[in-house]
Amino acid sequence: MIRINLLPHREEKRKARRQQFALFAALTALVGLVIWFVGHTIIAGYLDGQEAKNAFLKDEIATLDKEIIEIKGLREQAEALLSRKQVIESLQINRTETVQLFNELARQMPEGVYLKALKQSGLKINLIGYAQSNARVSSLMRNLEASPHLEHADLVEVKAAMLNNRRVSEFNLNVSIERASAADANQPPGKIPAGGKP
Q1: Are 102 and 144 within one domain?
Q2: Which UniProt keywords apply (predicted)?
Q3: How many other C-beta atoms lie within 10 A of the C-beta of residue 197?
């Protein structure tokens, strides 16, 4: 019987298998390393892109914040200019009010009545003066009520007083100015306003 020694052949197969396994393990490790590197590069690229976008957005937000502050400043300036314009328009409408007031008081003052003091507070005017009689004070109040520029003549008090050795009535009364609306103020002179008063 012939004996064949198969041990060296088996040893060679084991050695070849070990080499194949080592080669396969190295190849797997290399493929894994390549996949990790590619994934890491892609993710890093995404992160860099996102950081660039975030930086861009921050810059744009800062620019918008500055523009918003500028717009608020411009709005405040516009409101201040608008309020000034309204004050100027109000003054323009009522610029002749004082002249009209004095003309109207001179027209409506009956004979035997004269003023000692006149004080204006807003639309309210306080008149203090002397009259020859209480009837003249009543006549003055009627005239003021009938005036197109004055209204609400209210008597505060009437008292007897001595002036130049003569007995007179000292009166104190309030009257209000009737302001024309902006539409009435823009009408040409002589035209009757919408309220119907000439």
Answers
A1: no
A2: Coiled coil, Membrane, Transmembrane, Transmembrane helix
A3: 13
